[in-house]
Amino acid sequence: MVRLSRFRKCLLRSACLTAAVFMPTGSPSDVSQPPLDSRILKVDAFFESYGCPLPHHAGEYVRAADLYQIDYRVLPAISLLESTCGAFQRGNNHWGWNSAQTRFASVADGIDFITRQLSQGDPYRDRDLDAKLFSYNPTAAYVRAVKRLIDEIDGY
């Protein structure tokens, strides 16, 4: 028997209700909502499991990752390590960017900026994940810790 956390039950219930409300009726003029992206649910569940403060910004993480073509799990993992998902952040900087000296107008702006840098900025462009993470924080233990959290996100 599979036991679901209260959070997962709530997400599943919400997804089922959303699906029922937006089920097409067969008329060509009906517009249904796209299905909820499972990656958003995984990021939310990951942050919830660590007691991270709300909002989790899971949709913004996935959107930026898709836009800049990087793994959607990288920035959430960095956020957990650097600021406990924003619990210990300054200036909407959940990722310790620039030794936490950079401030962002919003968390969404920070997600977009850092995701773009990891994709296109020097010294990250055209490098594999290990090299990107090592450039972000040049310690082998940091790279291992982020990769462990990336793998953990898949379990949700």
What would you note in describing this structure?
The longest helix has 16 residues. The protein is globular, with a radius of gyration of 17 Å. The two termini are about 15 Å apart. The protein is mainly α. It has a single domain, classed as Lysozyme, CATH 1.10.530. Helix content is about 55%, strand content about 0%. It is built from seven helices and no strands.
Overall strand count: 0
- Mean pLDDT across every amino acid position: 85
How many domains comprise the coordinates? 1
What is the 3D form?
globular
CATH class: Mainly Alpha
**Which percent band covers the strand fraction?**
under 5%
Largest sheet: none
- Poorly predicted segments: 7-30
Q: Based on the structure given, which CATH architecture is correct?
A: Orthogonal Bundle
How many angstroms separate the termini? 17 Å
Helix content: 40-55%
Number of helical elements: 7
In short:
With 156 residues, the protein is mainly α. Helices cover 54% and strands 0% of the residues.
Descriptors:
Lysozyme; mainly alpha; 156 residues; 54% helix
Topology:
Elements: H1 6-21, H2 38-49, H3 58-68, H4 74-83, H5 107-120, H6 129-136, H7 140-153
